[in-house]
Amino acid sequence: MKRRTDAPQDRYYMVGLMFFILGLGTLLPWNFFMTASLYFQRRLETNESSNGTEVVRKEYYFNNWMTLLSQLPLLLFTLLNSFLYPRISEAIRIAGSLVFILLLFILTAVLVKVPMEEDCFFSVTMATIWFINSFGAVLQGSLFGLVGMLPQKYSSIFMSGQGLAGTFAAIAMLIAIGSKTDHETAALGYFITPCVGTLLTLFSYLVLPRLVSQLSSQHNCITHNPSDLTYTNSPHISLYADEPGSKASVIEVFKKIWVMAFCVTFVFTVTLSVFPAITVDVKTTSEGENWESYFISVCCFLIFNINDWLGRTITTKIRWPSKESRLFPVLVISRVGFIPLLMFCNVQSRNYLPVLFEHDAAFSVIMVFFSLSSGYFVCLSMSYAPQLVEPKDAETAGALMTFFLALGLSIGAALSFPLRKLI
């Protein structure tokens, strides 16, 4: 199927704004839990008596488990959403997922004030991360289907909102740290923020049909050709015309896009194998208590999210190498070099590897190129794949790429465990 070119004018950019908020809302859960790693580590810092004399710190490997239990449900429920799509209405999948995500964020905020034994707190937090990302996967898959019915600019707006979700979470954490309040109050305020963001996302989805209905009334989209699809007053907006010919099979589509599928899988495998499970344990060498409090939020999360978004944005102006170039997968594979570079930074604690890049500036520079290349190659891979197939098969290509994206995230999360132990 191909996109219609006679789309109505979006006056005041309200529909675009709604899709930007929807994109932001899809990645809020992952980013807010990831950026709050310092809060969770503080709650889990505990000493246990061993042999009645020696005191050792119990290691939960929180960041590794958080990464793995965030990405596994993304992979599983991305597949599940393919079966849910024809059986459960879009409104239930999107609005229902947002409601459950909101309830889980409220639970997380409440637990800030509830004293809990460390093992119990860890188990409850891991269960929350699993379920919140399960609903997030259904939400994201459903919204990708919805935005795919609209002109290309709305897909770009939606992706831009997703790209800024991490920056939004990092700034919220910086504000919480700089609030000069006690740790509990700062954490409570931090987790209330995504509650408000999720409510705003739900509101945006609920008002979207009315905005689209207004767009439809401004533009006569009813054609005399019965093969054309028309606008409706429901969220299921069809802005496509039928493409003659049957769709190719999944295997046939995969044969055409397998290079791009490999690339998006490999990019996220490299990225998630070290971020945030390893990068969050880098310690500053600069003196000063204030900077130590801000170091990870700035040099790890803020730098990564800003440059990841910048890398995605650059692809709107620069697209090199081309989709046919053999250099493209070579450059993607070369990103594996970032793994040892980040492992040789001042990650603490460590048992085997030496520290080669001790200074904060070295870590920051590596993070800039690491995140910039991640966003750039992911966006190129995702945009190139549909161009390698016939227009009627673009939807199948997009679904396959979403699966391989999730596969890369899951493989990277699993690799973070042995890589962290190697340090």
UniProtKB/TrEMBL annotation:
Signal peptide: none annotated. Pfam families: Nucleoside_tran. One of its GO terms (biological process) is hypoxanthine transport. It comes from the Eukaryota. It is a multi-pass membrane protein. One of its GO terms (molecular function) is nucleoside transmembrane transporter activity. The chain crosses the membrane at residues 12-40, 60-80, 92-112, 124-150, 157-177, 189-208, 257-279, 291-307, 327-349, 361-385, 397-417. Keywords: Membrane, Transmembrane, Transmembrane helix, Transport. GO terms for cellular component: basolateral plasma membrane. Gene3D superfamilies: MFS general substrate transporter like domains. Belongs to the SLC29A/ENT transporter (TC 2.A.57) family. This is Solute carrier family 29 member 2. It comes from Astatotilapia calliptera.
